[in-house]
């Protein structure tokens, strides 16, 4: 298949995308305004959050979690270990660590990076890890048009299926950026939205920019452990396998 370019928004005029768009019942999709963003970055919240529509349930700006969003493990004291943004050249090193520790995880993969490292995705599956989608280009989804949202999900879905033969059921929005418009579109495509447990973002993604240190990541994780007794269920943690530095602390 002729896939879209790496880390770029797919063309919504592509024949396959038009077919996918036609499969959505648009009458059920809330008419919410597009968020303002320097695409592909995470959208900015309106000043004072006053500009957030009441029916948006916009996780980025008001922390709203929809009833069918997954943010905790259903089993008490279970640990849902997840990695975003890969695969990358460092992912095999992480897979070796996980294998040695006899631990499996969920990888939310970026479609265009699967295009670059298909063998790594195959290895993840062979070693018993779960695979979810993290869109095609890693753009903030609430800033995209309805058609772009469809293209982002379906191209990622297609390449994962083409490489592994697996039909994915779960997705995680880049930056956690999701509202009810995005939710309904991906819901109609058969996906459940997975966020992460509050306070359990490792913030490892800040290490490459040197805005946080390895020690701070470990300290944050240790503090988060203290919140476990208060949780109804287990935790879903957020880490990343895109950079050498994030894999170093995984």
Automatic annotation (TrEMBL):
InterPro entries: Glyco_hydro/deAcase_b/a-brl (IPR011330), NODB_dom (IPR002509), Polysacc_deacetylase_ArnD (IPR050248). Residues 77-250 form the NodB homology domain. One of its GO terms (cellular component) is membrane. PANTHER family: CHITIN DEACETYLASE 1-RELATED, GLYCOSYL TRANSFERASE-RELATED. This is Carbohydrate esterase family 4 protein. GO terms for molecular function: chitin deacetylase activity; metal ion binding. Keywords: Hydrolase, Metal-binding. SUPFAM superfamilies: Glycoside hydrolase/deacetylase. PROSITE patterns: NODB (PS51677). The lineage of its organism: Eukaryota, Fungi, Fungi incertae sedis, Mucoromycota, Mortierellomycotina. It holds the Pfam family Polysacc_deac_1. The keyword Hydrolase applies. One of its GO terms (biological process) is carbohydrate metabolic process.
């Amino acid at each position: 298949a002729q896939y879209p370019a790496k880390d770029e928004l797919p063309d919504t005029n592509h024949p396959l995308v038009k077919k996918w768009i036609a499969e959505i019942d648009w009458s059920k999709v809330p008419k919410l305004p597009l968020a303002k963003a320097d695409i592909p970055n995470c959208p900015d919240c309106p000043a004072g959050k006053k500009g957030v529509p009441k029916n948006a349930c916009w996780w980025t700006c008001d922390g709203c979690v929809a009833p069918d969003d997954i943010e905790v493990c259903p089993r008490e004291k279970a640990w849902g270990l997840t990695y975003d943004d890969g695969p990358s050249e460092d992912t095999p090193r992480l897979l070796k660590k996980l294998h040695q520790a006899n631990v499996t995880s969920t990888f939310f993969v970026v479609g265009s990076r699967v295009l670059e490292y298909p063998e790594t995705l195959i290895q993840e599956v062979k070693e018993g890890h779960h695979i979810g989608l993290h869109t095609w280009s890693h753009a903030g989804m609430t800033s995209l048009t309805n058609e772009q949202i469809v293209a982002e999900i379906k191209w990622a879905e297609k390449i994962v299926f083409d490489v592994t033969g697996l039909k994915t059921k779960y997705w995680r929005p880049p930056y956690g950026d999701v509202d009810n418009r995005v939710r309904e579109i991906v819901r109609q495509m058969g996906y459940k939205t997975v966020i992460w447990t509050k306070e359990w973002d490792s913030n490892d993604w800040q290490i490459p920019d040197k805005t946080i240190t390895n020690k701070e990541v470990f300290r944050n994780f240790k503090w988060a452990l203290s919140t476990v007794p208060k949780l109804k269920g287990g935790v879903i943690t957020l880490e990343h396998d895109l950079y050498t530095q994030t894999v170093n602390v995984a």
